Amino acid sequence: MRKTVLIVEDEFLIAMDLKLLLERSGWYVLGPAATVEEALELLDDELPAVALLDVTLRDGSVTRLAEALCERNVPFVVASAYSRPELIGGEILAGAPTVGKPTEERLLIAVLEKAVRS
């Protein structure tokens, strides 16, 4: 299976940084998407192996997207500075792996690969 990751991040420089980092590590990147709507459109075209989600986007919380990913059985990882992202993005984010922000490269890769395997 191709290692595909959907990046959902509304800060342009962070999104580009994540994209380059993941591509260097052998991942195929969908996006990055800066809004929930953009990400949902990308999901209509192709399902990723995993998604990397910022909690708050330009068009609000990532909750609706997380629900759509769950419905499609796509695991997701949260990239957030919030210690408890579920307080912002709802119960759907409780228990999701979190890599923090800024994200350390080795941790990010390890958590994404674990999410794909589980």
Q: How does this structure look, described?
A:
- The chain is of the alpha/beta class.
- It has a single domain, classed as Rossmann fold (3-Layer(aba) Sandwich).
- Helices cover 42% and strands 19% of the residues.
- The strands form 2 sheets. Strands 2-1-3-6 form a 4-stranded parallel beta sheet, sandwiched between helices. The chain has a two-stranded antiparallel ribbon with strand order 4-5.
- A hairpin with a 2-residue loop joins strand 4 and strand 5.
- The longest helix has 13 residues, at 12-24.
- The model has no long low-confidence stretch (mean pLDDT 93).
- The modification 4-aspartylphosphate is found at residue 54.
Mean pLDDT: 93
Shape: globular
CATH class: Alpha Beta
How many helical stretches? 5
Helical content (DSSP H or I, runs of 4+): 40-55%
How many independent structural domains?
1
Strand content: 15-25%
Classified in CATH, the superfamily is Response regulator
Helix/strand structural class: alpha/beta
The low-pLDDT segments are: none
- Within the largest sheet, what's the order of strands? 2-1-3-6
CATH hierarchy: architecture: 3-Layer(aba) Sandwich
- Radius of gyration from CA coordinates: 12 Å
> How are helices and strands ordered from N to C?
EHEHEEEHEHH
Gap from first CA to last CA: 14 Å
Described by strand count, sense and barrel closure, the largest sheet is:
4 strands, parallel
Organism: Sinorhizobium glycinis
Keywords: Phosphoprotein, Transcription, Transcription regulation
InterPro entries: Bact_response_regulator, CheY-like_superfamily, Sig_transdc_resp-reg_receiver
Protein name: Response regulator receiver protein
